Every structure is written in C-alpha cells, then in structure tokens.
Amino acid sequence: MKPFLLLGTRAENYAADAEYRSFLRFGGLAEGDLRRVRLEAEPLPELDLADYSGIFLGGSPFNSSDPEEEKSDVQVRVERELGGLLDRVVEEDYPFFGACYGVGTLGRHQGAVIDSTYAEPVGAVEVTLTGDGAADPLLAGLPSSFAAYVGHKEACAALPGSAVLLASSATCPVQMFRVGANVYATQFHPELDVEALVGRIRTYRHAGYFPPEEADAYIERARALVVDRPATILRTFVTRYARG
C-alpha cells in the first residue's frame, strides 16, 4: 500500500507525537503506512501526490482568521505552503482529510468566511448529518447524530458555493464539508479519544482555549463523556483511498 501523509503544525513534541499516534490508531495504520511532516519545524518538501494514498492535515494552534500582521513568520509560511498544496489537491480532487484546522485552511482556500463567530469550548457536542452527509460514503454506518470532540477559536461562518455541507451542530453550523468528491474537512476531531483530549487540555491550558485555572474541571468533564463514533471516519477514509 502506498503510505498516507500526515501534515502537522504542533510545536509541542508531546502533542505532535500524540496526534500522530492517534491517526495511526484510528486509521488502522502501521508506522510505515503514515509518513508525517511537521510543518512548524521544516518547509513542506516537494511532493509527488502519486507517491501517496491520501493526505491528512492535523489540528493546529494556528488560526487562519488571525490578522495577517499578527501571524508569525512560521504561520505565514505554513499557510502559503498549504495554499499551494491545496491548489493541486482541489484541482486533482485528490484524497484529503483535514481535522479542525482543515476547516480553516480548506475553507479559506475556497473562499469561505472563517471567523470567531462559532468558536466552541473544549468538550463534546452533538453533531448531526445533513442529507448530503448521510449519503456520503465516508460517513457510511454513522448514525444521523453522534457526539464528537471540539475545541476551536475559529470556524466557518459561511460556506462557499464549491463546498457541500455534510454535518452541523447547534453551536457551529459547519462541522464538516466536502469539496469535489474526495476533499474533506471537519471542525470536530475524529482522531481524539478521551485520553488524547485530556492530553490536549494539559498541553494547551495556557493557549487561550479556556481559563487555565479551570483545566482540571475540563478534564473531569471530558472523562465523563462517551465519544466513540467519529473515529470510524478515519478508518473509512483509509479503507476507501488506500491504493498501490
């Protein structure tokens, strides 16, 4: 099988490595089947898309909607490189799955309105499939609504005409969309289980997602949640697109 590629942007080694392990686990992949590039540490290398089965984009501390003058040089470079990659991905309708940061990057690339209107605190929300979502092969087998982990400072406030809305929630109208037949983005995190979420809470307690003194309360609430359906999306993506 040709490997999949994971693009990450997390500078914290613990968070970056945990994210990689999560995509391995829930994608049903061995380490040799998932290569990764940490874009916060090195430029995106020249990629021949034919060498891969598909691309995953992990979450990020970056926000696409931040004012340009407030973005670091690293963020500006990462966004430029991802924009160039998405030019090719969308043109070729190449298998792509972006989790959380995928909404900001793919949405912005396609002309969506990305802002803080529908930011959601760290926790779980009830995600509901649209009619197009229920018919999408990547979501086959999922119930019409399910719990999913979220935690983001920006979201898609208005989709462009090129996108198909697949899932929504009461607090964030765009939880998942598709461009073409094979390019996907979710606002929720299908790669997280409760322990991974707890790790994120600890790692980013001072990153502005919640008051740092409330981290233990967020962890306690997280441990009381049952979120077990979204991860199947990653396995379906791998099964559907694995080639070679």
TrEMBL record:
SUPFAM superfamilies, per database record: Class I glutamine amidotransferase-like (SSF52317)
Alphabetical UniProt keywords: Glutamine amidotransferase
Domain of life: Bacteria
Membrane-traversing stretches: none
Glutamine amidotransferase domain mapped to chain residues: 46-192
Record keyword Nucleus present: no
InterPro entries: ChyE-like, Class_I_gatase-like, GATASE
Protein name (record): Glutamine amidotransferase
